[in-house]
Each structure stands twice: as structure tokens, then as C-alpha cells.
Amino acid sequence: MVRLRQIGSAGVRSMNMIVQPKIKGFICTTAHPEGCMRDVEQQVNYVKSHGEIAGVPKRILVVGASGGYGLATRITAAYGCNADTLGVFLEKPAAGKRTASAGWYRAAAFESLITEKNQYSGSINGDAFSDAVKEQTVSTIKDKMGQVDMVVYSLASPVRTLPSTGELVRSSLKPIGQDFSGITIDVKSGQIREISAEAATEKDVTDTVKVMGGEDWELWIDALSAGDALAPGCITTNYTYLGSEATWPIYHHGTLGKAKADLDRAARALAEPMSAIGGSAHVVVMKGLLTQASSAIPGMPLYLSLLFKVMKKHGVHEGCIQQTDRLFRTQLFQEGDMRLDSDGRIRMDDLEMADEIQAYVKAQWSNVNNDNLKQLTDFAGYKEGFLNLYGFGFHDVDYAAEVEPDVGIAGVISFVSG
Ligand code: NAD
């Protein structure tokens, strides 16, 4: 088993300690380094077990590489395509009694595991919205990789500091036009509770588009192109979510949905510069999954618990790694046509959107209560997935044993201190 580098990230050795989950609202404030390693190992093993993916990319940049879909894409490229990878993310190292963020441990695990392969791998920890991180990324690509064949934009962030003005802009998860009220499952207690959200103001909408829309994706491609870091034929992807009627009021028809619609605009704007180098820009619709970003969306615990129940029953349940592996093998890097919708987006949510799956979600959406929660939903699976996000709930990790929380990421270039 590959061990994590137990080198104090701040150069100081901290004390070994027992790390247990501490859930507050929809987040867990602790993370377990060994459990995060297990998560990354399982994803690596999944891709390895499916064999090599023919063709490009051989050099890939992933912006948002330490969690959910970004990390899974990096693993798919590194282990399926044997690609050199550069990952950009924003994570916190351990400090004193505070564990590092889960994404920090996952990035550390990836860098430890990849050393067994003869491929370049680099990590940049800093604010991807900033000019400084873009410049550092371009110079690292020039220095270590020459150019990249694929740029994956997989950021999920609640805030953005605008590089032009220094203004801090916040995204919101609000309905548009009218207030929203509904129910969700409280992840800590496992009980149904009511939720509500006020209708967004115009500023909420424009700010959310600034944070989660396509502008920063375009700035990345501009910076990479100006630095001659994009190889001929380079492709770029950005992940979106559409979902179904159940989540539309708060997601697709809400502030975040507007930001996601802006990705379609950005993809059209990027078509020209990308085709000038023989490449292309794609928005990819991924399925709804449990990640740190999605667990913050009101109502998602209920929707995903119903979805997991019915998708597992039909044998079509997928996690991030199954989605990105299938994206590479069946859409991006295969001979036939891609599964595009009328807006030109690649659809990876085909199994989620199947009639028999959505019929179950729709039929049970209003029926779930505290008495039938266990029968109608897979909240147990949701809760396990939630704990896994933070490195907990892995059966072969000894959570009663002390661990060194201060783990270093091999070779990381950091713009952030503890
Ligand atoms: P995640 O929370 O698991 O990962 C987010 C990543 O962004 C992390 O690597 C984090 O470090 C990085 N990040 C955040 N702010 C940053 C900053 N300022 N600078 C650098 N890095 C930063 O999120 P996810 O769910 O994998 O989401 C990734 C993309 O996939 C998003 O666009 C999301 O909308 C989309 N998506 C998610 C789902 C889902 O169900 N989770 C479904 C479809 C599409």
C-alpha cells in the first residue's frame, strides 16, 4: 500500500491524533487522510480494471482537480490514457489540531500513488480565478509538459474575487421569480426537515453567473492560448447539470441554472479560438452525484437519496469515476458520434434521465416522510457517500487508530498558507 507523505506541510511535525467525523449542517469539518487515500485508490483501481483508453489526451490540465468530477477526470486521464496531469485546486493543509481539507488529502493521495507510474504530475494550490494562478499554470505547462491536449474546467466555488477589480462576488442557490419551500433530509439526524429560500434578486443572479458561469473558463483558455500552452487539436470541457422537474425550482430554473446556461454561451464563444487550433469546446451534462459542492444544494439529499435507491435497483448507479471513465471511453475518445443534445452538449445524464428512473423519483418525491424514509429512499447510501467524501466510512480503515494529520502534497506549488 502506498503511504501518504507524513511531512508537515508547514514544515512542522504535528501530533498524531484520532480523527472522527464532525458534521455541521451539510459539511463535515474534519477529514481523514487514510480514508481519503482509500477513496483515491478505489477510483484508480476502477479505471485500471477497465484497461487503457486509446488515443489522446496525453497531457491534461484539470482546474478543480481535488474533488468530485475534477479528481475523477484526472484519475481517468492519468490511469486510462497514461496522461501527464497538472491539477489546480484550492485546499487547506492541516494546522495544529485542525485536519487538512478532504481535497488536500485526496490530492496528496493522488500525488503519492502516481509516483509508481513514469508520468509527470503537478499540483497548484491557489485561487484559480486569479491571474497569478493562471500565470503559474501556463509557466508550469511550458516548463514540464510543453503544451496540453485537454483542459478540464471543473470548479465549484461559492465565491470569486474578480481579477479586474478585486471585488469579492458570492454565488447563491436561490429560486428565480418566487420563493421556494420544500423538504430535505438532514444529513446528521437523518430526519426530514422543511427548507425554504427567498427568490433571488437581480444582483443574486448576475453575481452567481460571475462566479459559476463561463467567464473564468474563457479567461483560462485566453491565458493558455496567449502562452502557447494549447496543443494542436486540444479540447476543453466544462461540466454542467440539468436535472429533472424535482430539482428545477431550486437549480435549473434558479440562480445556479442561469450560471450553467452561461456555460453554453461560453462554449459557443470558445468554438472559434479552439477550432483555430483544430480543437473544440464542450459542455458536458453529468449526472447528479454526491460531492462537496452538491451536498450544499437545498433538497439535494432527498433527490439523490431517491435517485440512488432507484438507480441501484435497476443496476445503473454510477459515481464520479464511473461517469468520467464512461465519458472518455464512450464519448470523447471513440470513433463514432457523440451523444449530443440540441444545444450541442454531451449527455452523460442519460441513465439518470431514463423514464423508469425519473418516474420513481417523481412518484415518491412528495410521499417521503420520517416513517417511510428507509423504504422509499437510499438515505443510508447517501449518508455513507457523504462520510466517504471526507475519508470516513471505509471498512478497512481503522478509525480508532491515531494518524498524522499533517500530510504534504508532493511537489505542490502553493499560493495559500494554512
Ligand atoms: P467539488 O466540490 O467536489 O470540487 C470542486 C473543486 O473546485 C475542488 O477541486 C476545489 O478545490 C476546487 N475549487 C473551488 N474553488 C476554487 C478556487 N477558487 N480555486 C481553485 N480551485 C477551486 O465539486 P463537483 O461537484 O465535482 O463540481 C465540479 C463541476 O461539476 C461543477 O461545475 C459542478 O456544477 C459540475 N457538476 C456537478 C454535479 C454534481 O452532482 N456534483 C453534477 C453535474 C455537474
Give a verbal description of the structure.
Mean pLDDT is 94; it is low at 7-11. It is built from 13 helices and 14 strands. Strands 13-12-11-6-3-4-5-14 form an 8-stranded parallel sheet, sandwiched between helices. Strands 1-2 form a two-stranded antiparallel ribbon. It has a two-stranded antiparallel ribbon with strand order 7-8. β4 (84-89), α3 and β5 form a beta-alpha-beta unit. The chain has 418 residues and is an alpha/beta fold. It has one domain: NAD(P)-binding Rossmann-like Domain (Rossmann fold, 3-Layer(aba) Sandwich). The longest helix is centred in the middle third of the chain and has 22 residues, at 255-276. It has helices at residues 33-49, 68-80, 102-114, 131-145, 202-212, 215-226, 255-276, 300-313, 320-332, 350-353, 355-364, 373-376, 379-389, and strands spanning 23-24, 27-28, 59-63, 84-89, 121-125, 148-153, 159-161, 168-170, 180-185, 192-197, 230-240, 280-285, 346-347, 413-414. Bound molecules: nicotinamide-adenine-dinucleotide. The site of nicotinamide-adenine-dinucleotide has 29 residues, from α2, β4 and β11.
